[in-house]
Amino acid sequence: MKKINLICIGCPMGCPLTIEKDGSKIISVTGNTCPRGDAYARKELTNPTRIVTSTVAVEGGDVMRISVKTKQDIPKDKIFACVKELKNVSIKAPVHIGDVILENVAGTGVDVVATKGSSW
Amino acid sequence: MKAYDIVIIGGGPAGLAAAVSARKNGIDRVLILERDKELGGILNQCIHNGFGLHTFKEELTGPEYAARYIAQAAELNLEYKINTMVMDISHEKIVTYMNREEGMQEIQAKAVILAMGCRERSRGALNIPGYRPAGIFSAGTAQRLVNMEGYLPGREVVILGSGDIGLIMARRMTLEGAKVKVVSELMPYSGGLKRNIVQCLDDYGIPLKLSHTVIDIRGKERLEGITLAEVDSHGKPIPGTEEDYTCDTLLLSVGLIPENELSNGMGIDMNRVTSGPNVNESLETSIPGVFACGNVLHVHDLVDFVSEEAAAAGKNAAEYVMREKSAVQISKDIKSPIELEAVEGVRYTVPKTVNVDRMTDRLTVRFRVGAVYQNCFVSAYFDNERVIHKKRPVVAPGEMEDIKLDKSKLLEYPDLKKITIKIEEA
Description:
The complex is a heterodimer. By secondary structure, chain A is of the alpha+beta class. Chain A has two domains: 2-47; 53-114, CPE0013-like fold (Roll), CATH 3.10.530.10. Chain A has helices at residues 35-46, 79-87, and strands at residues 2-7, 16-22, 25-30, 49-50, 53-59, 65-70, 74-75, 90-92, 100-102, 112-114. A five-stranded mixed sheet of chain A has the order 8-5-6-10-9. A three-stranded antiparallel sheet of chain A has the order 1-2-3, with helices on one face. A two-stranded antiparallel sheet of chain A has the order 4-7. Chain B is of the alpha/beta class. In chain B, 21% of the residues lie in helices and 34% in strands. Chain B has eight helices and 27 strands. In chain B, the strands form seven sheets. In chain B, strands 1, 2, 5, 6, 7, 8 and 19 form a seven-stranded mixed sheet that branches. A five-stranded parallel sheet of chain B has the order 10-17-11-12-13. In chain B, strands 22-20-27-24-25 form a five-stranded mixed sheet, with no helix packed on it. In chain B, strand 7 (94-99) and strand 8 (103-114) form a beta hairpin. In chain B, helix 1 runs parallel beside helix 2 and helix 1 (13-24) packs across helix 7 (303-325). The radius of gyration of chain B is 23 Å and the shape is globular. Chains A and B meet through strand 5, strand 6 and helix 2 of A and strand 4, helix 2, helix 3 and helix 5 of B.
């Protein structure tokens, strides 16, 4: 049996989590104050994921760039591939919050969406 | 002179939430004055996620969080002026502002809500020796350059200070292709949230050196490198621990200062610990009818708590305006308010005084501690009696704490003069 300590990143509370693991099997998660902590611990030890945020260029808009995010969390090892794909993206104004900027980023099946709008 | 019931100084998260709340509590003539070219304040450059878990029960980015409030403001037809700088507020609540369209204008407010936010401490406040080359930015300036203007300030980066903006920028610069070599923190603990250490530094293998500071800056035109050294418990560099780093960029994330020039101009009573106004249970400053909320009052970690506090300020300002309007004069408060005193590990409290008649059923008292304490208790003494004794596994200066005061409980102590809040070690 192995004990692993993690800090939950689910919310700003940052609960200290202790996970008991037997081989690849998770026996218990303690230290969390809400169900998000349990889910985070299990995911972090099997398939760690993150939401990625960045910006893309806007053409003909009232701002130079707009902010974007992956609509869901993507595998941690795809973060750099995701940012790289966004490097060459340029979007024509108008853009609205929630508009899909790039589909299936880095083959993750997750879309990148705008988190800010830009009018002409 | 034009007149408004409530004038709100600042259209960031605090100003927006205060305005929405004031309108929802029955005030028609509300005006927001914002100096930037759009509403939303600093949220516009905080493109990372993690906002709104308390307020909206979902994780939003900064611009999305701002957009929710801007949409509410639009729905309520709230009046605002952007590109408008407030120059002065008089003791009689005459607000002088300036913009390109109207020039210099004066308006009379019945109530004023201060929501100007804060600004970053700069290199000048730190006295770092060495040259003064280009390449030294505050973390927030770098954030604006990268996220809004689309410029990367440099390629090889050292960050001094482990405040949240510095941690967020360590990740952001890394994603944009820069090499962040180290984050150095003078104190033996981080000034930022634990989650940001995990997802901004640990995720990318960026080292955090606690009890370390920059003792030299090299480079004449452009920054060429810095020297880092470990410090002792008094913050003095320890000889022999110097390490040189080559870098073209130094980001400073060394604290935030509430932006209170206007408050000082009005002669408002200020708190030396928070650098914000002293306020009562209604978030009202020493000038009746002038309220404060958000980072201008005290620096917050979470925008959700800014919104909550600002909504309370908006409601209280609305009640103030209603009271002033109603011909019926309510009896003046006969009782003097209860004083809140911060001692032994607690650096300050917001609010600083409580008038039981005016408080809500449950009042949130926010504060920060002066050091890291483990397995301690947050205690509140009503005069000499310990009434609240809350166990906390860990408290740290980087994370704001709170306790709740129940009105029903306070009413049981009619002669109460002082509530003392302190940290007690187990």
